[in-house]
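Fold it.
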Amino acid sequence: MSKYDTPELRVSYGIGRQMGNQLLQQPFEGLSIEAVTEGVMDAFNQVADPINPMDMQQAYEVIRERLAAAQAEKEKELAGEGQAFLEENAKRDGVVTTESGLQYEVIASGDAAGKKPAINSTVKTHYHGTLINGQVFDSSVERGQPIEFAVNGVIPGWTEALQLMVPGDKWKLYIPHNLAYGAQGAGGAIGPYQALVFEVELLDIV
């Protein structure tokens, strides 16, 4: 049986868990849980702050600068990995590279005389999206449910590719970061400056 056996203890523990989870979102080298605990206790017991406000502000600035530098280095690394991947991928037989840098290869073909979507078309597709290391971040195929969307309402790499396809085509897209989510990334699954890989099947123009 849990030692947190009253509503008060459970909520108290929950507050601590929330604080811990918040710290995990952006940890930094040298983070001291002991000092965090002391800070909580001192605040709760109304103990005078032992740190000069100016010193505290300067310390925050130092840590922010370190975190920013580490993030910039990580983003540079991701961009480099994506670029290296695309450069090697472009050498493979069957891979086509467009003027924008988008790469694709044909897995299956529809009717070559079929109609291609316009930029303002709505299409129905199946897709399977991964990072360059194969990690899946989104897949209508796995959900078993195709999706409809506007050609001009998705990332630039998709917008470009869809206008080259006809219903029945299934292509594998290799999308550089500047044609995907760029410096912003997309949630936790797709970081900044990451190249992406999609298998896209154009089912229909709606």
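Strands lie at 96-97, 103-108, 122-131, 136-139, 147-150, 170-175, 196-205.
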